[in-house]
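ARCHIVE RECORD
Type: protein–small molecule complex
Small molecule: DP6
Source of inputs: curated submission
Record status: active
Notes field left blank by submitter.
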Amino acid sequence: MLDYKNPRHILNSDTIKEGQVTWRSPSNIALIKYWGKHGTQLPNNASISFTLSNAYTETTIKYKAKETGLLENNISFFLDGKEKADFQEKLITNFKNLDTIFPFLKQLNLSIHSHNSFPHSAGIASSASSMSALALCLCSMESYFFNSLGNLDEFKKKASYVARLMSGSAARSIYGKIALWGKTPADPNGNNEYAIPYKKYIHEVFKSFHDDILIVKKGKKSVSSRVGHQLMEQNIYAPSRYKEAEKRMSQLIQILKQGDLTGFGKIVEGEALTLHALMMTSTPPYILMEANTLTIIQKIQNFRKVQKLPLYFTLDAGPNLHLLYPDEHRIPIKAFIKNELLAYCEDQFWIEDVVGTGPTQL
Ligand code: DP6
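STRUCTURE (tokenized, with ligand):
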């Protein structure tokens, strides 16, 4: 187990200067899904994702010395300039868990400012982008204060570890293109504690893949991912799910190398429907798809059959669809989305995205 506890990372209170740090970090879309965890945010199966580009969070931490007081009082959080008390509470809990990793946080007043490139109400998961941006800011602060984490690989590994503690899927957003998180026989470098950049050969076709996100329903979902993960503990299909995920991971790794689009579609669509089947077989069961989610899925299947074009879908833990396809087919596929699918989206809202290069410090 990695141990990032560092009790010596305490600042000299007399010399703390005001400062700030900003990172932009993208969201990601899992091809093999993380669903079910144990211990301290450790996944029950390995997951792999495309890192996105246009769906991102920008986070700035402004810090200054705190005179006295408790951790609880030193964080304020603003989303698009507006103070958000509910987020603030979540952050305070997250930061408490990071107390031994970044003991200097207790000595500071933190004002955290976040902005998402997509509307907050869009109902797309922002925890991957927001928690990875935050983790990167914290690691930059450590690096600045203590001259540590000078090696970029070490910096990112720690950022991924810290992001994971706040939200599992955020661990993968630290790396561009494709990231892998979790122990798997398919890759000896896979680790449950942090994600790694996927370094094996990737066929050209996947390097410029599109992911257009179709917003079927905006707003908060009825069952959170946190509760969803918990319900996996009692799900009678969980053991076979984890076996299936492992098998699919090794198949997908071959597919990514070979550029086999049909194989890719089978796996990612299978993963999306498995994820939702697990929700429907939880106790209590629940459904996060909407009628329009199913209509769009059927239209995609039909389009593929008739047009013979490689357009595939996947889902996160929600009703919105991610449409995955190679760049060379973007023109007919975008026309199909505009003409036939947007009518089933709330306010015809969609986000056009592509595989991206990962976070940047601003
Ligand atoms: C369905 O990362 O949101 O998007 O670790 O509790 O924050 P926490 O869960 P979270 O779970 C996301 C699960 C998923 C699949 C995936 O991204 O792998």
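CURATOR ANNOTATION: Residues 205-351 form a domain with the Alpha-Beta Plaits fold (CATH 3.30.70.890).
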